Amino acid sequence: MSVSALASAPDTSAWYRQATGYHIWIKSFADSNDEDQVGDIQGIIDRFDYLNDGDPDSGGDLGIDLILLSPFYLSERTSDDPMDNIHGYDVLDYYTVNPRFGDEKTLKSLLELAHQRGVKVLFDFVPGYTSIKHPWFIDSAAGGQKRNWYVWQDQPSNDWQAAWGGGQWHDVWKPHGDRYFYTYFQSAEIADLNLHNPYVRAEMEKVLKYWLDFGFDGARVDGAPYLIEDGPGLQADRAGTFKLLQDYRSIADSYSPAKVLLAETWRPREQVGNYFGDGSNQIHLGLDFNWAWAVTEVVDNIAPDAVADLKRYQRQNFPSGYQMATFLSNHDSYLPRPLTRYEGNANKAFIAAALQILGQGTPMIFYGNELGLKGKPKPDAELRALFNWQDVERQTAKPHSLLSGYRDLLQIRHQYQAITHGSELPVVTRQYGVSSFMRLYQGTGVVILINASSSEQQATLDLMPFFKSAESESLSEDWAHLSLLLGKVKIPAVIDSVTASKVEVARIPPNSVTVLYLGAEPQKLIDGYYPNVVAPTTLPNIQAPALTSLFLRGSMNDWGASLPMSRGDDGLWTIVTQLSHGRYEYKFEVSGQSSWGLNWGDNENDQRGEVDGSNIRLQLAESGCYQFWFDEVTRRYGFQLAEGCD
């Protein structure tokens, strides 16, 4: 592509293109009463100044102007246990706020406060599935009026696999009574809605309208690629899914001002562009999972051009009007949080943050990443750990903490329109480990230099595109001030169009971020080089409650509470039950109530329970009486054939 084409200013009419987003996991972000360590909506209100204090010049907040909330609906899991992963996707009632998080009045207060401070708020729209405890599913399973509201088969074929490929038929088909229900989520507790059914489609449109009317500025469409399944191997990227997104877009566009649709576009890059339709009739924003991986390759100095190559592909293949939302990690089993991914190297986490905040796209900062909160992808609950507010005070007091670095980057983003409004193109460098790109807008430019190597480097930059861009803006200057905004490098103070292609940047520190400004007026240094970024983050001290009860729950008893276990003096919980030969999935769960609480599954398949782990799978070759046991100290578990069922 030509320089002029790359540098042409994009459409800046939509607020979401310039927004700075923050993804809040309600259960883990802020607890309003500081007693049970379970977050709530009032807690977000109480801590709102941290996100946006209403004063753009204070420097004490993050300057967030877009918030995405995790699901707040009434769900199957609503316990008061701080270790319980209340994820909210197991919906029981789309129109009721989970009382553990608050109520509609409190939610309305949050929206009012956000809007007073110019902050937009999105909710997590879950149109694809519900809990099997939802009244709709109960009616469907019983053959009632909603019998066709879910996806059922008497005996699925072996041709079925996971919606994204791989796996086996029983990963997505779960037994219930004498039939099987489909669950792209691969959970025996969550069932897919039949969105081929016009009554189901109408009901989910009603849900979307309800919360947009309530005052939300838009919605994240959960599991967007998998809303429609047309058969084995035809479970993603279906024409019916794109038609649903067009219907949702029509609803969003019917408001004044229009609402925004952000979608979970977790697909290969060749498929992602399809979710924008013609650029104006499907989603507005797509969560960029491919970008999240590409960033790790840049930061680890594996492929310095990985991000630039991905963005080039998107520009060349996606429809005009597309916009990606970038993230470094999120709540899914996808990537570790940055400080975990980079093995405690906060400088690398800072580099990743610079690529996100200063690069093209709408950044969606996952709560806690700005502090260096740690977490591995499995179990999901570890990615949704509690935010420790004492760490905010601790890092604010340290000039070169990760949080301070985030605030500097966000200040640059808010202060220079080249970041929020400008186009982006790579800047040629001629040095190992160094990558760079330029943001251009109305005769100004911001250059971001990343040294991902472990040694000091230098680079030769080609800044001629800046002058080409200025010329296209009818600006006559053939020279510009080159100012250092962030970093500690050696650069010339003034450049001109004759020498622009030979600008040398010397002494670029290892594992560092450098930000330069190009324009008619010189700019002041925002901050110097971060020689050793620190992220002193700790998790609150959470203790699991003492076990007073334990239940075996699984497909053998429709995940109910009919199998209470008994505790021996040695701390071993046991139960004997009669089972027919066949395949089962189960977990060990504490409360035994209709709403799930603390439970243990097994992600690693190593016979050791993990909080909110994956379902444990069991294949019985023969029928008989089986004893299941669970050790509350070691969390080891197992089963064995028993002599009888007494």
Describe the structure.
The protein is an alpha+beta fold. It has 20 helices and 32 strands. The chain starts with a helix and ends in a 5-residue tail after the last strand.
Chain-wise SSE layout:
Elements: H1 3-7, H2 15-18, E1 21-24, H3 26-29, H4 41-46, H5 48-51, E2 66-69, E3 73-75, E4 91-97, H6 104-116, E5 120-125, E6 129-131, H7 135-141, E7 152-153, H8 169-172, E8 173-176, E9 179-182, E10 190-192, H9 198-214, E11 218-221, H10 239-253, E12 260-263, H11 269-272, E13 285-287, H12 289-299, H13 306-317, E14 324-326, H14 338-341, H15 346-358, E15 362-366, H16 380-383, H17 389-396, H18 402-415, H19 417-420, E16 423-426, E17 434-441, E18 444-451, E19 457-461, H20 464-472, E20 479-486, E21 494-496, E22 503-508, E23 512-519, E24 551-554, E25 566-567, E26 572-579, E27 582-589, E28 599-601, E29 610-611, E30 616-620, E31 624-631, E32 637-641
Helix pairs in contact: 9-10, 12-13, 12-15, 15-18
Round the Cα radius of gyration to an integer and report it.
26 Å
Strand order of the largest sheet: 1-2-5-11-12-13-14-15
Average of per-residue pLDDT values: 90
Quaternary organisation: single chain
Helix content: 25-40%
Cα shape: globular
Low-pLDDT stretches are 1-10
Number of strands: 32
Report the portion of residues in β strands: 15-25%
Count of helical stretches:
20
Distance between the termini: 76 Å
Largest sheet: 8 strands, parallel, barrel
Helix and strand content put the structural class at alpha+beta
